[in-house]
Amino acid sequence: MKIAIAQVPPLFLNKAACIDKIVEIVKEASGNGASLLVFPEAFIGGYPVWIWRLRPGSDSAPCTELYNKLVEQACNLRNDDLAPVLNAAKKYNITLICGLNERDACGSQSTLYNTAVVINNEGVLINKHRKLMPTNAERMIWGQGNGNSLSAIQTTAGKLGTLICWENYMPLARYALYAQGIEIYVAPTYDSGDVWISSMQHIARESGCWVISANNAFQARDLSEPILALTGAYPEPNEWVNPGDSLVVAPNGKIIAGPWNCERGVFYADIDVAQVTQARRSLDVAGHYARPDIFHLAITPTPESPVSIKSAGK
Fold it and tell me: Catalytic: which of 131, 138, 159, 209?
């Protein structure tokens, strides 16, 4: 099976343009024979890169203005924001995973989440995973997800699931996916570099499944005018703010494609899901290598609401 990774810059703070770009890439990847297409973390709306160069206290005015723009360009998954993407997945018979900024449609309807959606080849959104724990400065942007999306989902491309960026350093979150028979482990991320690459290799070996890491890659010139103007933090247009390093790792921990460093484009790799069974013959951490008599993982899957409204007369 051929898979595709879109290591391309997003159109920052421009939801409509990002969605148009996704539709264009879906068509391209399908035309090149891909059955599965993966986009990086927070692709729709763009990763809020300024959080690593602005100080929340001293730079509160630009932080606030950029946050407001990000909220304006976030996706509401209860309306038709993703309709063009769903239609493209169905039209071109491809399964895709995409990171996005999601505006909560419930409660106050103001919280943002770092979300990865899984869309099958019939154009149906079959899983919405919100990042469980935003990292460090990300906590000024995104709320916390919950356990109801820690799922390995069966698709025509295989049984797949996703964890976002440093969620992949949460061993219990990983194990929750391993225990559901995951075959293709997808890690949309903003991270890069040797430590991240070695972590992806470790996860592949530990899980005995294919690991696909789709990383952000863009230069300062790819940032939107508001980010450049309000921050003044990216004076060199050719600077690689994030170099990418997307890659594909086989179940034995061997890198079979990538990492693509300081490159942009749609990259392809051939994978064989049957290798998952072979890898787990000797090491199956959620199967014969587990010790449920000693260790037990309990997951709380139900999202909680801050308010419960009773109908009149009850």
Answer: 131
